[in-house]
Amino acid sequence: MNKNEQITALILAGGRGTRMGTVDKGLQPFRGATMAAHVLQRLAPQVGTVAINANQNQGEYAKLGVEVWPDETPGFAGPLAGLEAGMRRARTPYLLTAPCDSPFLPADLAERLFAALREHDADLAYAATQEPGMRRQPHPVFCLVRVDRLPLLARYLLEGGRKVDGWFAELKAAEVLFEDTNAFRNINTLDELRSMDNAGPARLADVVSCLSGYDPDALPVRDAQRIIRDFVTPIRSIEKVALRAALGRVLADDIISPINVPAHDNSAMDGYALRGADLAEDGPTTLKVIGTIFAGRPSSLVPAAGECVRIMTGGVMPAGCDSVVPQEFVANETETCITIAPGTIRLGDNRRFAGEDLTAGSAALKQGKIVRPADLGLLASLGVAEVPVQRRLRVAFFSTGDELRSIGEPLDPGCVYDSNRYTIYGMLQRLGCDIIDMGIVRDDPQALEDALRNACENADAIITSGGVSVGAADYTRQIMARLGDVTFWKIGMRPGRPLAFGRINSGGKSAFLFGLPGNPVAVMVSFYFFARDALLRMMGAEAPLVLVRARSAGAIRKKAGRTEYQRGALSRGEDGRPEVRITGSQGSGILRSMSEANCMVVLHDEQGNVAAGDEVDVLLFEGLI
């Protein structure tokens, strides 16, 4: 499902939560996150921008990484006040609203409301549901409205109107019927919240029910990614480590700066600190030099009018000075005076303000960031010695198949060395996981069940390769189904069509399962585009795949209706622009082509044949953590 960049989504969290005991509903914990965070997770893939309407605890909502817009109509005027605030601030032609206490809203809400609004040339589209034998139930707070209809809403509120659908009378409205009534469920009381939160983890069937047109035998890539993202939950275990040990770890909390950076107004370069008011506009300026200020050495020098101070990079700006002229731009320089040509600098040039980089009390690094070398330096500059991080994710993995042999074993006729475990090991190592290599599991029901149980009881996630294709033994599905909530998909992609995903349980423990195909290239493709994001989400990190655009050096045959991943070599063309070539045969068993490649060409579901010179999306292998 594609984002609609014309839509801003607004999460309505501006109420007083009286039915929930006057607590802030959007910030109440629910299944490992806050309710508002669940709604945000649902809305973000559907629209261009998401904001939150909140009148209290705005700092807490801002930690979700979105803008927070309070009501402009006073007196808690209900959802319409939030809608008004959103329509005033939205920078897109359409605004979509959803309440903060509806964490199950449909994954296609924006798409279907937008289609109805356009089809009926309406001002507003809203959701409705109908249970068997019951009247149709409108849900006007789930609505998509044209932002330019703001004057009508403002007048309605000014006249005292408060009913959510009361202003519809002045609009052309389109009602959109949704099949899943549970998707619009509100959690209104603390008892209801606790009941649903304690009902255990979400079921795959619940997540899949929010996806229209779900077909496990022909599932688009983006739908499978969406289901996995909605189903997987982060681990909740924090530890503090020494600064150097934090490299590559995921921050478990915001790092708040204890100081201003820089601590004082200072010079951005070697030169002379002066008063901007002394600079003549129509001729040279001559200033008397009264001393020198070095970095790290406070000085009491205070230049008077017509005076300046020689200053080194990082030196604290003397009182009264607001500009610095670089040393190389002055003329007639002596120990006692300098001359500056007119127009050499402007007022305020080359001066760094206290707190310009960071102000005391602000977030230097955000929760969920993966700590990189530059972050170590930033933390050291703040004097931070210990860093709160998520514990490392424990991932168990094994290969299945009687034909597989480990390195060092004789290669019998019809057998192959197991390469997938080494590929998976490398990809997990770069993610920073704690790794449990369980070797090769033979094609035997009891051996497979024992391996899955062992992995489940010792790891947060399990990755298998092989045994999920159409030709796999039936016991694979039976065992996984017996151990937990697992589904088998045929993804509309090449390579790597078969995929198993879900959660299994054993010995009071549970683990997420990713059953990857057996072909070597398909293993890497499936890991990068399905397992990787889910594992990062479990780690509490956000590091989405970044695609770059490059010109195709040659024609590429592509069948519309499925996503294809082709191995490529990215380089610079003769004109200096990025250019990508396919690395020969693209068979899913040809691992050599993956080794020779430095990127993957991503040909999307709706895309057809590519002509030489066309631009395509490319995923670079370097930088995949």
Automatic annotation (TrEMBL):
Domain MoaB/Mog: start-end pairs: 396-537
Top-rank taxon: Bacteria
GO molecular function per UniProt: GTP binding; metal ion binding; molybdenum cofactor guanylyltransferase activity; molybdopterin molybdotransferase activity
Catalytic reaction(s) noted: adenylyl-molybdopterin + molybdate = Mo-molybdopterin + AMP + H(+); Mo-molybdopterin + GTP + H(+) = Mo-molybdopterin guanine dinucleotide + diphosphate
Pathway the protein contributes to: Cofactor biosynthesis; molybdopterin biosynthesis
One CC-aspect GO term: cytosol
Keyword vocabulary terms for this entry: Cytoplasm, GTP-binding, Magnesium, Membrane, Metal-binding, Molybdenum, Molybdenum cofactor biosynthesis, Nucleotide-binding, Nucleotidyltransferase, Transferase, Transmembrane, Transmembrane helix
GO biological process terms on file: Mo-molybdopterin cofactor biosynthetic process
Residues spanning the membrane: 511-531
EC number: 2.7.7.77
Listed cofactors: Mg(2+)
Any matching Pfam family: MoeA_C
Listed Gene3D superfamilies: MoaB/Mog-like domain, MoeA, C-terminal, domain IV, Molybdopterin biosynthesis moea protein, domain 2, Molybdopterin biosynthesis moea protein, domain 3, Spore Coat Polysaccharide Biosynthesis Protein SpsA, Chain A
Residues reported to bind Mg(2+): 101
Subcellular locations according to the entry: Cytoplasm
Matching InterPro entries: MoaB/Mog-like_dom_sf, MoaB/Mog_dom, MobA-like_NTP_Trfase, MoeA-like, MoeA_C_domain_IV, MoeA_C_domain_IV_sf, MoeA_linker/N, MoeA_linker/N_sf
Function: Catalyzes the insertion of molybdate into adenylated molybdopterin with the concomitant release of AMP. Transfers a GMP moiety from GTP to Mo-molybdopterin (Mo-MPT) cofactor (Moco or molybdenum cofactor) to form Mo-molybdopterin guanine dinucleotide (Mo-MGD) cofactor.
Subunit note: Monomer.
Record HAMAP family: MobA (MF_00316)
Domain notes: The N-terminal domain determines nucleotide recognition and specific binding, while the C-terminal domain determines the specific binding to the target protein.
Stated family: Belongs to the MobA family. Belongs to the MoeA family.
Official protein name in the record: Molybdenum cofactor guanylyltransferase
Organism of origin: Massilia horti
Gene it is expressed from: mobA
